[in-house]
């Protein structure tokens, strides 16, 4: 967290006021940075600020801010002009109301800032406001002038402190109606939803900071290191292309099977293993069907018993065949 605050003022709830300071929550110190290079000379390219009409080179410190009120006509503003435009939200965060966190669509969240107490005298009031917001299970809505623009903000507890999120205005959020108008309005098949829900349940886990790692940057660093060393870089095999799903039901079932295979052995159901007390290779019925027990020693008797059974079949046939005849004569 940066030690220098980007804003200082007061957080006010009714008549309760607490001095606070905002600090940038995001930083990109570890990201890769590139420069434009002239490939012919290998030299870095320098960006120059020029006057659009005279091509005169200017320093950034010599520039002023201007508002174009007509085509090519500008009115210049200095720091005193911006200071005269200050309003109460320039230095005070007045809490307007409290809402539930799920009532704010995530698309409205913009930048995050850590809100810390500004000075030792603010500690007591700060922790009271923090715990009150936490116990109410709500989010405080307020307004703040930052970067010469008043922004709606949401304030919520975060660990031992508070965090502030700037919110986009409705006019800044694109309307998705045209993008979603072709999505079918009817509900999908319940059995498919059930399979998809099972897939979600089986892959449910806890959030880890490592889930946010930039894998592309890690691969790009490997490519850069290989080029510096003069060696080639062979990427790992890419995952199977699973686009163009034709049979959704089959794809869902295959996905569930892949999840089962990915699970550790200890998590698989015990029914998947063969029972140890019934070894299938020792069963005699697989090779020689018989009515006798495996331990019986009477092969001759068994053959004799089988012969009468074979002869008995034709004897029984004549006895049953003539029975329908008397019924015919009675008719």
What is the strand tally? 12
Largest sheet: 8 strands, mixed
Strand order of the largest sheet: 7-1-2-9-12-11-10-8
Name the helix and strand elements from N-terminus to C-terminus, one letter apiece. Answer: EEEEEEHEEEHEEEHHHHHH
Q: For this structure, what is the CATH class of the domain at 7-28 and 64-172?
A: Mainly Beta
Q: Beta-strand level of the residues, as a percent range? A: 15-25%
Low-confidence stretches: 265-275, 278-297, 299-326
Number of helices: 8
Q: Give the CA-based shape.
A: extended
Radius of gyration: 40 Å
DSSP helix fraction: 25-40%
Distance between the termini: 108 Å
* Alpha-beta classification: alpha+beta
CATH-assigned fold name of the domain at 7-28 and 64-172: Ku70, Chain: A, Domain 2
> Kindly state the mean pLDDT as a whole number?
79
CATH architecture of the domain at 7-28 and 64-172: Beta Barrel
Structure commentary:
This protein is of the alpha+beta class and 331 residues long. It has a domain at 7-28 and 64-172: Ku70, Chain: A, Domain 2, CATH 2.40.290. 29% of the residues lie in helices and 21% in strands. The chain contains eight helices and twelve strands. Strand 3 (37-38) and strand 4 form a beta hairpin. The termini are far apart. Residues 265-275, 278-297 and 299-326 have low confidence and may be disordered.
């Amino acid at each position: 967290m940066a030690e220098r605050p980007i804003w200082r003022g007061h957080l006010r709830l009714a008549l309760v006021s607490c001095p606070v300071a905002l600090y940038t929550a995001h930083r990109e110190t570890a990201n890769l940075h590139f420069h434009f290079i002239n490939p012919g000379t290998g030299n870095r390219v320098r960006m120059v600020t020029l006057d659009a009409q005279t091509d005169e080179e200017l320093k950034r410190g010599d520039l002023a801010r201007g508002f174009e009120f007509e085509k090519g006509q500008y009115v210049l503003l200095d720091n005193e002009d911006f200071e005269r435009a200050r309003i109460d939200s320039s230095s005070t965060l007045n809490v307007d109301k409290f809402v539930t966190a799920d009532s704010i669509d995530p698309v409205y969240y913009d930048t995050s800032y850590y809100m810390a107490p500004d000075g030792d005298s603010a500690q007591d009031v700060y922790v009271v406001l923090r715990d009150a917001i936490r116990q109410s299970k709500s989010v405080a809505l307020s307004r703040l002038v930052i970067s010469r623009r008043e922004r709606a903000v949401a304030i919520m507890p975060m660990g031992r402190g508070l965090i502030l999120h700037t919110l986009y205005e409705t006019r800044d959020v694109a309307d998705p109606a045209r993008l979603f108008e072709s999505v079918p309005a009817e509900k999908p098949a319940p059995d498919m939803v059930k399979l998809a829900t099972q897939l979600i349940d089986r892959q449910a886990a806890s959030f880890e900071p490592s889930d946010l790692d930039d894998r592309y940057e890690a691969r790009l660093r490997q490519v850069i290191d290989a080029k510096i060393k003069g060696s080639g870089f062979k990427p790992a095999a890419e995952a199977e292309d699973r686009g163009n799903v034709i049979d959704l039901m089959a794809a869902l079932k295959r996905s569930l099977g892949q999840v089962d295979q990915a699970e550790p052995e200890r998590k698989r159901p015990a029914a998947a293993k063969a029972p140890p007390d019934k070894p299938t290779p020792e069963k005699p019925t697989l090779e020689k069907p018989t009515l006798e027990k495996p331990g019986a020693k009477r092969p001759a008797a068994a053959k004799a018993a089988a012969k009468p059974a074979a002869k008995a079949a034709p004897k029984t046939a004549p006895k049953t065949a003539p029975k329908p005849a008397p019924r015919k004569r009675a008719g």
